[in-house]
Amino acid sequence: MIKKLIRVGTIGLLSTVLLSACGSSETGSTSSGASAKSEGSGTTFEQMKSSGKLTVGTEAAFEPFEFVKEGKIVGYGKDILDVVVEDLDVELEQLDLPWQGILPGLDAKKFDFVATSVSITPERAEKYDFTVPIADGTMAVLKRKGDSSIKVPDDIVGKVVGTQLGSGQLTALQAYNKELEESGGGVKEIKEYVGFPEAYQELATGRIDAVVNTKANLSGILKQSPDTFEMVDTFGEPMWISWAVRKGDQDLLDYLNEQILDLRDSGELAKMQEEWFGFTMDTPDSGYLPE
Predict the structure, then answer these.
(1) Distance CA 206, CA 143 (A)
(2) What is the distance of C-alpha 95 from the center of its chain?
(3) Which of 28, 211, 264, 265 has the fewest CB atoms in 10 Å of its CB?
(4) How far apart are CA 193 and CA 65, in angstroms?
(5) pLDDT digit string (tens) for 110-139?
(6) Confidence of residue 19 (pLDDT cuts 50, 70, 90)
(7) Please, which residues bridge with residue 91 across strands?
(8) Angle formed at CA 246 by CA 235 and CA 79, multiple of 5 degrees
């Protein structure tokens, strides 16, 4: 039986500063300081099994993937994580961190892998290895319900649009805005937030006009506040959401892929998606990494 130790509650400014010392969320370098496992005693996966402890990094402010409810981390990603580690018989420590500390923390070996929603981008794929996708990460636009000035994604031209600082969503929005500018448009301003809950609040109060997030993530806020928000549509190329491991942790990557594919092929992943998103998503087992 899996032994679980969940550290809940976002680690605030101090952790952000400490982890930021390792580098930005896209370019953090490996630190020689404290690490999740000791150096030089086998691969991460081997150390994890021999020590009897698995430590993962999570941003539990990303409903319905991972979020805190009644003091516990829950969600779609948490359900997958529970299944993934069920047969390992290890103690699970799930660290709840701001997104800006997640990838630098992986670089610094603060935890064994990232068990949170990571959009696969070319820049990230150069630095990290990604599991097979757990969800469709295609981008979409959220607006206030009844706002007739935004009917299609292109209508964000001239608007103030919010998204998360240092995220794949920001990268996608910036690329989309460049296309709009080349066509003679472009947004008025892109506002970056530490977390999406703050962006949603700003949208609800009218301080911004729209929020860009993945369609899968927006399902959570739409279920929570159906009278406040509505989704416009998706835009851009298809994107995928996965978990991340350090380059070279091939045995760990193989293990995670096997568990995720077993869930997908057995139909269990679809059941989880229906529960948390209200719809199912087809996910590939190849061709999802940037070329």
Answers:
(1) 10
(2) 14
(3) 265
(4) 18
(5) 999 999 999 999 999 999 999 999 999 999
(6) very low
(7) 3, 53
(8) 65
**Is the pTM above the cut of 0.70?**
yes
Residue type, 53: K
Those residues with Cβ within 8 angstroms of residue 278's Cβ, 6 or more apart along the chain or in another chain: 219, 223
H or E stretch covering 222: helix 215-224
The 3-state DSSP class for residue 172 equals: helix
Rounded Cα distance between 18 and 145, Å, is 40
Query: Distance between CA 182 and CA 286 in Å, rounded?
Result: 33
- The strand pairing partners of 113, in sequence order, are 56
The amino acid at 232? V
Q: In the predicted model, what is the mean pLDDT of the chain?
A: 87
Q: What is the DSSP string of 70-124?
A: TTEEESHHHHHHHHHTTTT--EEEEEE--GGGHHHHHHTTSSSEEEEEEE--HHH
Residue written as token pair 């994107």: 239
Identify whether 226 is preceded by a cis peptide bond (ω within 30 of 0). Answer: no
Rounded Cα–Cα distance for residues 41 and 109 (Å): 14
Q: What is the 3-state secondary structure (H, E, C) of 4-65?
A: EEEECCCCCHHHHHHHHCCCCCCCCCCCCCCCCCCCCCCCHHHHHHHHCEEEEEECCEECCC
Confidence of residue 88 (pLDDT cuts 50, 70, 90): confident
- Nearest CA to 121 among 168, 165, 163, 174? 168
CA torsion sign for 37, 116, 162, 138 is positive
Gap between the Cα atoms of 76 and 271, Å rounded: 10
188-247 residue pLDDT tens: 999 999 999 999 999 999 999 999 999 999 998 999 999 999 999 999 988 999 999 999
Residue written as tokens 């995720």? 260
Query: Which residues make beta-bridge pairs with 189?
Result: 160
